[in-house]
From TrEMBL:
Keyword Transmembrane applies: yes
Pathway annotation from the record: Mycotoxin biosynthesis
Family, as annotated: Belongs to the cytochrome P450 family.
Transmembrane segments: 20-38
Organism, scientific name: Ophiobolus disseminans
Record bears the keyword tRNA-binding: no
Protein known as: Cytochrome P450
Entry cofactors: heme
Entry keyword set: Heme, Iron, Membrane, Metal-binding, Oxidoreductase, Transmembrane, Transmembrane helix
Length: 509
């Protein structure tokens, strides 16, 4: 009754009967208008600056946000070239993001966790409350395990990594007969190899051979991305409801439950080993247990940390290795050069010396330049208001990023930037792990990727082994299809791409 009276007071609506207001089309229209209103409103503080991406002043904001989902790189490029040397804003569906001008890179190189914080930006991006990653805000164990345990002992870890790669080649490679070519789903294969290696450094032998754990390692990042990409399409008020309906989130919780069970068993074994004076394997997990502060000791905390490393390590490394192999498959001249380099510097293919593979490293640098897993990187969250030297203010709470892909594809910086030309001077003279002002795939400054030293070695070993053991080429059905997709700032190799592979040495042509 009250609703009808209120409606009667609105001039145009008053002439309509109340049954129209409860009809599906009317409710649908109201929901749609609310959705557009949410899409049009900015949610995060931004640095003052122009907004990129509008095709005309008439284009509504909700359309610009929708276009950013599949054309983020196009919008970033247009902003970068139009507003050079000025920071600009891009409108993501869930938030506004300030793209800082590259001139600020030097000034912000040392910016610490209390000023511009990478972890807080990542947690915001993956909606940490719904992906069990919020805890990382107060738990930096997932970074310290890498910087304090993995990096200083990398040579010791490499022996285990080689062993795990060799094992994976035995059990995960398709079986080849004679000189037959086989079509191989390179994403699945590489995800499996990289997941095994990640399990090995995290849990050690023999726990890493638990197939359930390997599957969890493989699937967890995809679950997190699935939840994130779906939830970002909805206003925060609906997140608690929508989150309940996302299958990837059910899988995510199953992964967490299973990981807890297995980690508890491993921790029990460690206790027994410790009590009996037996040497425990040196792994990220043992380091985390031995160095846990009181708030990091619980099983939940250890498992969250473990899975946070997985999220950072597996998808990135397997995507980059896949991109690298696809580039090589289409440019066989480089395969010949790489094989020569591997053969000249290595006699034992079960134990590859990655340190001598400079041309391989150049190919990896070029792959990261063209196809970084994240196209606007590094990203940071402003923990407080920051005044830059020229007076520009980054407000507290702002989400800021640098334009990684526009910089690495800028013809003023790189000649023929779209071409895969691995032996460029800059690739041969600077290690892949050293970030540069137009080389931001591993991030920048004091918060750059801590796993990059391990990642490059791992990728080089896996690629060298593949190239020496197999002939590879692009499958004919993949030659005319699009190589990769951008979903917001994630670059993904087209999952339909296949490589053809066959055993080397059996070539009868
Ligand atoms: C080719 C592979 C990889 C790429 C391209 C990559 C890229 C990145 C980037 C861009 C960042 C953000 C850095 C910044 O904000 O300045 C990052 C952070 C990080 N990466 Fe990597 N990464 C890779 C492999 C790995 C591996 C193998 C590990 C673990 C062993 C790892 C662990 C981490 C961690 C723990 C962080 C910090 C995340 C945070 O602060 O929230 N990454 N990575």
């Amino acid at each position: 009754m009250k609703l009808q009276q209120a409606i009667d007071r609105v001039p145009l609506l008053g002439s309509l009967e109340s049954r129209y207001f409860f009809s599906a089309p009317f409710i649908g229209l109201v929901v749609f208008l609310c959705y557009l209103t949410w899409l049009s409103s900015a949610t995060t503080p931004v640095v003052k600056g122009p907004v990129a991406g509008y095709r005309s002043f008439l284009e509504p904001t909700f359309l610009v946000r929708l276009r950013f989902v599949f054309n983020a790189v196009g919008i970033m490029n247009s902003g970068y070239h139009k507003f050079k040397n000025t920071s600009f804003i891009v409108r993501r569906m869930d938030t506004d993001l300030t793209i800082l001008a590259p001139k600020y890179l030097e000034e912000l190189r040392k910016s610490g966790l209390d000023a511009l914080n990478a972890t807080h930006a990542n947690i915001h991006n993956v909606l940490g409350d719904y992906t069990n990653l919020t805890e990382m805000k107060h738990n930096d164990h997932f970074i310290k395990a890498i910087t304090h345990c993995l990096n200083p002992n990398i040579n010791e870890f490499m022996k285990h990594i080689q062993d795990e790669v060799n094992y994976s080649f035995k059990v995960d490679m398709p079986k080849f007969e004679g000189d037959e070519w086989k079509s191989v789903d390179i994403h699945i294969l590489l995800k499996r190899i990289i997941s095994r290696v990640s399990c090995r450094i995290m849990l050690g032998f023999p726990y890493c051979r638990n197939e359930t754990m390997v599957e969890i390692t493989e699937s967890h990042t995809i679950c997190i991305f699935g939840v994130t990409l779906i939830l970002r399409r909805f206003p925060p008020i609906l997140h608690p409801l929508v989150a309940l309906l996302i299958p990837q989130r059910w899988r995510m919780w199953r992964n967490i439950r299973e990981t807890k069970k297995m980690t508890q068993d491993i921790l029990d074994d460690y206790k027994v080993m410790k009590a009996s004076g037996e040497a425990r394997p040196k792994t990220l997990l043992t380091w985390m247990v031995d160095n846990a502060k009181p708030h990091q000791e619980s099983l939940h905390s250890l498992v969250s940390t473990q899975l946070a490393v997985t999220v950072a390590a597996v998808y990135t490394s397997s995507q980059v290795t896949s991109h690298l192999l696809v580039f090589l498959a289409t440019k066989p001249q480089y395969i010949a050069e790489l094989r020569q380099e591997i053969a000249e510097t290595n006699s034992d293919m079960e134990n590859i010396d990655h340190s001598k593979l400079q041309k391989m490293e150049a190919c990896l640098s070029e792959t990261l330049r063209i196809n970084p897993p994240q196209t606007n990187s590094p990203q940071r969250r402003a923990m407080r208001e920051i005044k830059l030297r020229d007076g520009v203010i980054i407000p507290k709470g702002a989400l800021v990023a640098f334009p990684a892909t526009p910089l690495s594809m800028d013809p003023a910086i790189y000649q023929d930037p779209t071409q895969f030309m691995p032996f460029r001077k800059e690739n041969l003279s600077v290690p892949a792990t050293t970030p540069g002002k137009s080389k931001l795939a591993f991030g920048w400054g004091v918060q750059a990727c801590p796993g990059r030293f391990f990642a490059t070695k791992e990728i080089k070993v896996v690629t060298a082994k593949l190239l020496m053991k197999y002939d590879i080429e692009l499958a004919p059905e993949s030659s005319s299809i699009r190589r990769c997709y951008d979903i917001e700032d994630l670059r993904i190799l087209n999952p339909s791409i296949r490589l053809r592979m066959r055993l080397r040495g059996s070539n009868t042509e």
